[in-house]
Amino acid sequence: MNISTKNKPASISNQEFLLGKSLTQLTDWVQQQGQPAYRGKQLHQWLYQKGARSLLEISVFPKQWRESMANFPIGRSTIDYRSIAPDRTRKYLLRLQDGLTIETVGIPTDKRLTVCVSSQVGCPMACDFCATGKGGYTRNLQASEIVDQVLTVQEDFGQRVSNVVFMGMGEPLINLEQVVTTVHSLNQDVGIGQRNLTISTVGLPGKIRQLAQHQLQVTFAVSLHASNQKLREQLIPSANHYPLEQLLEECREYVTITSRRITFEYILLAGVNDLPEHAEELARHLRGFQTHVNLIPYNPIQEAHYQRPSQQRITQFTQILKQRKIAVSVRYSRGLEADAACGQLRTSLNEMR
Ligand code: SF4
């Protein structure tokens, strides 16, 4: 798919990283450095296909030029620590150029390699069940820092990444501009189909409508986690500024503008939001909606007292939604043993070990 680069700046300054930039932008940049235009294509290939970490490595460049540009910031992180779960899921603690750390997860299956990327250092949303939310918030990530996560996992597995989900640390819609730039870069520069990218949000007033205007072909997932406003505010403190009805109204607008279905995510917490009346209430809200519901049995963390529901409760909840003609599936997060599952990501090495 040919995606416009209108969301990217026309040229890049010396303060910005090269990663995340399009072929056109890289070509502009090499020309600004006094090099012929074809070096832009070479740079693009070395950044996105060969994983160059420094301009010095790019052996097709003239020796004198690459030596003079050896310290120019490309935007690659380093792996501080890596843990591997028995199901082969790998969780990485990555150190950014400014010394801050984030987590990224690589999830392999027989046919796919999915990366769960972070969009912020920490997260300001403070969801009550989430380890990231308990750790506070530092800053948004640049597009280069999100693209780097995908390349890092690809290189470590020695396998092409097929899917990317924005479900790591952070609320992607707070960092909407950089997330949209990342989507274009992953699509055009790294070569991952937009339909294999998933943006997930707990919802922020006006932001879903704003995302819809970009007309992306990505999968869009909204984390409801509750069947009524009171329960939602208890689990997601930021929801007290965003009534459930208003959230659902923006979701309907999203479907109208993009003609794309929305996935609703619902973490099942034992005795909190997993009762039959919650399933009935959820079904009432979603009646007539073009949607799919992902039920996610909770992954326990030390910082919160919630528990995963019994299998019987999960089945009962699922059955009620199915009887109400709601498309539903249960998603068991991978990487539980490496603390790499949904809601278990943190920024510190001590917490990770
Ligand atoms: S669940 Fe998502 S939005 Fe909520 S605190 Fe965790 S990372 Fe942030």
From TrEMBL:
Stored PROSITE patterns: RADICAL_SAM
Cellular-component GO terms for this entry: cytoplasm
Subcellular location(s) per record: Cytoplasm
Enzyme class, spelled out: transferase
Keyword Methyltransferase part of the UniProt annotation: yes
Cofactor: [4Fe-4S] cluster
Catalyses which reaction(s): adenosine(2503) in 23S rRNA + 2 reduced [2Fe-2S]-[ferredoxin] + 2 S-adenosyl-L-methionine = 2-methyladenosine(2503) in 23S rRNA + 5'-deoxyadenosine + L-methionine + 2 oxidized [2Fe-2S]-[ferredoxin] + S-adenosyl-L-homocysteine; adenosine(37) in tRNA + 2 reduced [2Fe-2S]-[ferredoxin] + 2 S-adenosyl-L-methionine = 2-methyladenosine(37) in tRNA + 5'-deoxyadenosine + L-methionine + 2 oxidized [2Fe-2S]-[ferredoxin] + S-adenosyl-L-homocysteine
Transmembrane regions: none
InterPro entries listed in its UniProt record: Aldolase_TIM, Methyltransferase_A, RlmN_N, RNA_MTrfase_RlmN, rRNA_lsu_MTrfase_RlmN/Cfr, rSAM, rSAM_sf
Sequence positions that bind [4Fe-4S] cluster: C123, C127, C130
MF annotations from Gene Ontology: 4 iron, 4 sulfur cluster binding; metal ion binding; rRNA (adenine(2503)-C2-)-methyltransferase activity; rRNA binding; tRNA (adenine(37)-C2)-methyltransferase activity; tRNA binding
GO BP term (any one): rRNA base methylation
Active-site residues from the entry: E103, C342
E.C. number(s) listed in UniProt: 2.1.1.192
Domain Radical SAM core: 109-337
A Pfam cross-reference name: Radical_SAM
Record: residues binding S-adenosyl-L-methionine: G170, E171, S200, S223, L224, H225, N299
Keywords: 4Fe-4S, Cytoplasm, Disulfide bond, Iron, Iron-sulfur, Metal-binding, Methyltransferase, rRNA processing, S-adenosyl-L-methionine, Transferase, tRNA processing
Cofactor-binding details, from the entry: Binds 1 [4Fe-4S] cluster. The cluster is coordinated with 3 cysteines and an exchangeable S-adenosyl-L-methionine.
Other information: Reaction proceeds by a ping-pong mechanism involving intermediate methylation of a conserved cysteine residue.
Function: Specifically methylates position 2 of adenine 2503 in 23S rRNA and position 2 of adenine 37 in tRNAs.
Entry-linked PANTHER family: 23S RRNA METHYLTRANSFERASE (PTHR30544), RADICAL SAM CORE DOMAIN-CONTAINING PROTEIN (PTHR30544:SF5)
Family stated for the protein in its record: Belongs to the radical SAM superfamily. RlmN family.
Name of the protein this chain belongs to: Probable dual-specificity RNA methyltransferase RlmN
Protein's organism: Stanieria cyanosphaera (strain ATCC 29371 / PCC 7437)
